[in-house]
Structures
1.
Amino acid sequence: MVTNTLSIGSPETFFFDFSEGISNIHIEEPNNYDIQHHFQKALEPYKNKPITLLLSGGLDSQFAFNVFNRYCEDVKCVTFRFMWDDSVVNPGDVVSSKIFADHMGADHTYVDFDLRDFIEDNHVLDFSKQYYFNSPQIATHAKCISSISNDSTFVIGGEVPIFGYFNGQCFPPGYKSKKGVTGMRIEQDKDLYKRRYVPWLNFAKQNNIDLIVDPMFMSREILFLSYYHNMRVLKKYNELPYMINDKKFRYDIYDYKIKYYKAFDWAEYKIPFRKETGFELLRIHYMKQKGDLDEFNKRYRVPLWRHNERTEWYNKRQYQLAPKYNNFESIMETFNNFVNGKDIKNSNSIVADI
């Protein structure tokens, strides 16, 4: 069952109405540009509440720990070990999270999860369809949360709110250009926020779980400053992710994320090498079983995509609807004035399709 509307923040930074199928993103320029000030203010209600932070060991969850550990008194970190019989499928998470937790002196524990049972008995498909997860990997994390019975607030690392670069202009993901620019990969990300946040919020609401899905979305001021933070990277390195649409290659922004997070000079990290999730190993496992590189996707991703596309809110018409960005005019003008006439470098990384 799907609730009619979902939102993050009060007032909302993210708002989604299933009847319209449009993601609304709201920011507000603050008088004080110190993001730590705004994190402290946003976390005041959580200061003395128990926090369970899902620590994968990646940069997103490391940054989330830096924030919550700074302003909350009772923060415990949990890393899920995905078990396949006697083997750990996500050793990268296990090792990276321990290195970081030890460095920070964090209260850190592991929780084992029977991934083979969840995957091979198709529980992952039933669970994902219930909340409209497109990714079996993300659905697995949600299932892990539901297996923990406590009254804490759960925190998951979000994503870098990027500004991308294309043809001399800067855009947020999925932005609908008034000039009708074509060829941007950013145009392929119209469903980014829908895909990223709606299933998590739907899951949390239906299960009455207090869940913070992205620290950057906790207030409109924080979200403004997290977008504006790209300017620090831009000024230092003269680069942004290019929003190109090249079907010959797959791209990611991991190198850019490192620069982005390290520009918060008050935060500490233990940067993992090309952080993987463990599901890459599953893909190789199924490939070797069937001799088909896409076997895992055919079994567990494609059915979810098809299921969601048949729903009223995720049909192809609504899939094409761009997010609505509110109060972005001034920040886009700032970025575009800065890049005007400059040769901006491409920070994308080409990744192997495995």
2.
Amino acid sequence: MLLRRMPDWLSPETRRGMEAVTAQLVAQFAGTFSRETVEGLVGDTLARWPVMPSQHFLPVVIYRFARDRLRAMGQTEGAITKERPRVLFVSSRDGARSQMAAGLLSRAAEERVDVCSAGVTPALEVDPAIVAVLAEVGIDLRAAFPKPLTDEILHAADRVVTIGGADPHPALATARAADWDVPDLARRSLDELREIRDHLDRRASDLLDSLGL
């Protein structure tokens, strides 16, 4: 068994899925990280995840985030070449504002920037209203998911932007993060969300300019 310890709440099918994605990551990062390092990081990623009512997509979600963590770790250590600048948006829950900002910057950057988001205490899902208002401008967040803030992702970022005064986190104290004052999006009307979306779109364009892109 690749993962020596898995949470008790995982179903047998999910356990098999986790074994499969871990083996895939071990192969993908062979020559960069040892099997033990990859297995340990996957186990840590899984341990950070909340108990989910449905586990159907959990192996895929864990694979995607563990892969991002390994890439970030490799870039920080100089084992993986960083081809583009990294921008990290951090909010309290990563279910609305940081997801909106990341989606807008990704569209504006046109693959010139690696964009990621994270939450100090992640929500279980991205707010459907945010998915809807970004779909109006051609941004598909249906596969997006809230992610925890980890040291690897934070240290690999060239720019860190906190959204709306994210909850305190020890690592953010030394990150020299800029803060965008964006109101809480909960219980906002669609028109209010569109106004905030357009405001964040302009902020994203300004951020690109500051990166020289």
